């Protein structure tokens, strides 16, 4: 038997929104009416958008200078570098909780703040942009920490899987590709963080 189109659309809609379904739980209803929390969300949405723009600008620099522009062409090299994506699954899981998501954003921003040192070494001529990005990542992390304290939310610590000290690059090419993936991963991380903040702002 065929499934009616309307039912199919409904099922598809449910699947697409499944990651956010737990957002409508009781604690968030209280948060959604909190004016200070809403102000925090809107200010930091703008801040996250600004950081995303700066990461994109650095990605263009890496593309222009080193002709490293497409991820799919570099995946084999990536395997040798040991650079992994900072986890952010708590921001789009079915069991979404503000504490867990904010904790992962907070920790991830601190990780990328450190990782950007590799980009700074690679692009001394663009030091001011990289340093601004590091400062902004630190400030956004601090904003989230402060907001969690204001809301009385506990910081959730996750075991660090992967991103520890910066990888040691065996060649200048590996350094270039490593920096490329640090920026690409950071951009994806920011996209997920942005979507989580935006969804909270729409509740």
UniProtKB/TrEMBL annotation:
It is found in: Secreted. Belongs to the IL-6 superfamily. Keywords: Disulfide bond, Glycoprotein, Growth factor, Secreted, Signal. Residues 1-25 form the signal peptide. PROSITE patterns: INTERLEUKIN_6. It comes from the Eukaryota. The lineage of its organism: Eukaryota, Metazoa, Chordata, Craniata, Vertebrata. One of its GO terms (cellular component) is extracellular region. This is Myelomonocytic growth factor. One of its GO terms (molecular function) is growth factor activity. GO terms for biological process: immune response; positive regulation of myeloid cell differentiation. The keyword Calcium does not apply. PANTHER family: GRANULOCYTE COLONY-STIMULATING FACTOR. The keyword Transmembrane does not apply.
């Amino acid at each position: 038997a065929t499934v009616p189109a309307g039912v199919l659309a409904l099922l598809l809609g449910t699947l697409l929104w499944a990651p956010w379904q737990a957002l409508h739980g009781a604690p968030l209803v209280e948060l959604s009416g909190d004016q200070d929390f809403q102000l925090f969300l809107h200010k930091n949405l703008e801040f996250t958008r600004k950081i995303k723009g700066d990461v994109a600008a650095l990605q263009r620099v890496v593309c222009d200078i080193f002709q490293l522009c497409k991820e799919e062409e570099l995946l084999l090299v990536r395997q040798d570098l040991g650079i992994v994506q900072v986890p952010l699954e708590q921001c789009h899981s079915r069991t979404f909780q503000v504490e867990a998501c904010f904790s992962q954003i907070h920790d991830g921003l601190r990780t990328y703040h450190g990782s950007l040192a590799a980009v700074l070494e690679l692009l001394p001529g663009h030091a001011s942009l990289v340093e601004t990005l590091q400062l902004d990542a630190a400030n956004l992390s601090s904003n989230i920490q402060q907001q969690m304290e204001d809301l009385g939310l506990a910081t959730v610590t996750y075991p660090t899987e992967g991103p520890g000290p910066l990888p040691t690059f065996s060649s200048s090419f590996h350094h270039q590709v490593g920096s490329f993936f640090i920026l690409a991963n950071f951009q994806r991380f920011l996209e997920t963080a942005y979507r989580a903040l935006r969804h909270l702002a729409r509740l």
